[in-house]
Amino acid sequence: MTDASSWERTLLLTRLALEKKACDLVVMDVRGLTSIADYFIICSGRSARQVQSIAQGLEGNPAEHGIKPFAV
User: Which of 29, 34, 43, 70 is the most exposed place for a label (fewest CB within 10 A)?
Assistant: First the structure.
């Protein structure tokens, strides 16, 4: 998935967050509002430990699919 579209990447990241039991997940289309992103994903967790797990999953797992974050 090294040549994935921004929507496919968004779906992958959303799926990874949901696998870690993310709550209240929202995907915002910001293509017309900013030049640094096409989509913005917001989610929460039920505890600090769960939020940490979600964040670690979103940092590590996408690299397996050729997606690298700009910054953490």
Answer: 70
Q: What pLDDT, on a 0 to 100 scale, did the predictor assign at position 56?
A: 86
**CA 35 to CA 50: how far, in whole Å?**
31
31-56 pLDDT, tens digit per residue, is 889 888 889 999 999 999 999 999 88
CA within 13 Å, CB half, 23 = 7
Query: pTM, whole model, 2 decimals?
Result: 0.78
Opening angle at CA 31, ends 26 and 36, nearest 5: 95
> Kind of pairing, strands 39-44 and 23-29?
antiparallel
